Amino acid sequence: MAYSLDLNKLVHDIRGPKGVAAITEELVKIRSEFSRVSSRFQPEAEKKLKELQKNMTVVRKSFESRVKKIEKDIQSTLKMVKKSANKAESKLQSAIKGKTAKVSRKKTSAKKTAKRSR
Fold first, then answer.
1. What's the confidence (pLDDT) of residue 65?
2. Which residue from 26, 32, 33 is spatially nearest to 11, judged by alpha carbons?
3. DSSP character for 8?
4. Non-local CB neighbours of 30 within 8 Å, separated by 6+ positions
5. Could you tell me if 39 and 31 are in contact, meaning their C-beta atoms sit under 8 angstroms apart?
6. Chain segment 7-59, per-residue pLDDT in tens
7. What does residue 108 show for φ and ψ, rounded to 5 degrees?
8. Which H or E run contains 43?
9. For residues 32-68, b (16+ Cβ closer than 10 Å) or e, as one string?
10. pLDDT tens for each residue of 50-74
11. Is 63 helix (H, G, I), strand (E, B) or coil?
């Protein structure tokens, strides 16, 4: 039986000799109806909640594994970039040293040719 609330009757009862007892009676009826409905739907709700928890666990594990994989990929990429940067820097340093050596050789050879031409 569904609960129905007649506000006019409740207001009339509150003004009458019942007073607070009428409100208490209505609250008891509401509480019993709520208990009946919740006991009817609670097992179904718990079942759905457990199913959702299982799904969330699967999603969380999948997410965590993907995050770990991404972090691992980022770390390996950073190592590769650092290694490439170090190689490029060493090549640049050796190229700079090589140019200065070549320039100095050219200057000396130019001086020698100038002396030879005299």
1. 93
2. 26
3. H
4. 3, 5
5. no
6. 777 676 777 666 777 777 778 888 888 888 777 777 787 888 899 999 999 99
7. -70, -40
8. helix 20-117
9. eeeeeeeeeeeeeeeeeeeeeeeeeeeeeeeeeeeee
10. 999 999 999 999 999 999 999 999 9
11. helix
- Token representation of residue 96: 């700079």
3-state secondary structure of 2: coil
SS3 6: coil
Q: Do 3 and 33 form a contact (C-beta atoms < 8 A)?
A: yes
Q: How far is CA 54 from the centre of its chain?
A: 19
pLDDT score of 97:
84
| Six-digit token string for 51 | 């199913």
> Has residue 107 got a pLDDT over 70?
no
Q: Both tokens of residue 71?
A: 């972090």
- Tell me which amino acid residue 31 is: R
Check if the beta carbon of residue 32 is closer than 8 Å to that of residue 6. no
Tokens of 99: 């140019």
Q: What is the mean pLDDT of residues 71-87?
A: 95
Tokens of 57: 């666990």
